[in-house]
Amino acid sequence: MDLGISGRVALVLGGSKGLARSCASHLAQAGVRVVLNGRDATAGERAAAELGNGALFLQGDLSAPGVVGSVIAEAQARAGAISILVTNAGGPPTGQFTDHSIDTWRAALEVNMLSAIGATQALLPAMIEQGFGRIVNITSFAVKEPYPNMALANSVRAGLTGAMATLAREVIDRGVTVNNVLPGLMATGALDRVIRARAAREGITEEAAAAALAQSVPARRLGKADDFGPICAFLCSVHAGYITGQNIAVDGGLARALL
Questions:
Q1: Residue 86: what are its φ and ψ, rounded to 5°?
Q2: CA dist 127 to 69, 121, 242, Å?
Q3: Do both 110 and 210 map to the same domain?
Q4: Taking residues 220-228, what's their average pLDDT?
Q5: What is the pLDDT of residues 1-20, one digit of tens each?
Q6: Total number of domains in the chain
Q7: How far apart are CA 183 and CA 171, in angstroms?
Q8: What angle do CA 49, 75, 249 make, to 5 degrees?
Q9: What backbone phi and psi angles, to 5 degrees, belong to 87?
Q10: Is 190 a residue whose pLDDT tops 90?
Q11: Looking at the structure, do residues 129 and 113 belong to the same domain, yes or no?
Q12: In this structure, are strands 133-138 and 176-183 parallel, antiparallel, or unpaired?
């Protein structure tokens, strides 16, 4: 399927690895020029080279003050007007509600909620002016069904979901859609901390913990990055112009919520 977005520019935050990297790859295959952001320069430069189509990598830690703005400014200067934004940031530490200090809560809000809001605020005016914009946030299945030992993720991801649900209804009539894609238990580096925490908590090996997680999914396997990228790219396409404010789970049936 032709996604109808060839020649457009996308900024993919936290996009040098894992799920966002898969999304970037499918966007590049659709003819989009992708600007990747991440903390690991080696992985980022390699990913940009593999994507081709003029892809760029801009290093930056989204939790540091001013980094989101500087990354966007450089991306616009080097690649032109950005009409597609994919936000992504590594999940916060695992643990129960009482395990974390208030400073840890603030850090999680900064990385997993406010960085996405800041990037959206910076890019939204140009999208509205173009009459075309696609904002896709990579969040978590936990916004549909809170997951044990993930108090921070359950909370801050839900906060971002509420903010983006509000925005989605405010800008759809100007050609801008806002949606969230919710990964489940995916076999990427981001799941390693969950596996380690479960292994330590239950006194089992990490291999056994990973196998137990896979068995908890109705699909009886962990997800792969290639399960995720296509739906992310589709939501950025011209065909998704009447889809907004949605939370689409890619989780093998893990979340039991009706909606």
A1: -115, 120
A2: 16, 10, 16
A3: no
A4: 96
A5: 899 999 999 999 999 899 99
A6: 2
A7: 25
A8: 75
A9: -100, 145
A10: no
A11: yes
A12: parallel
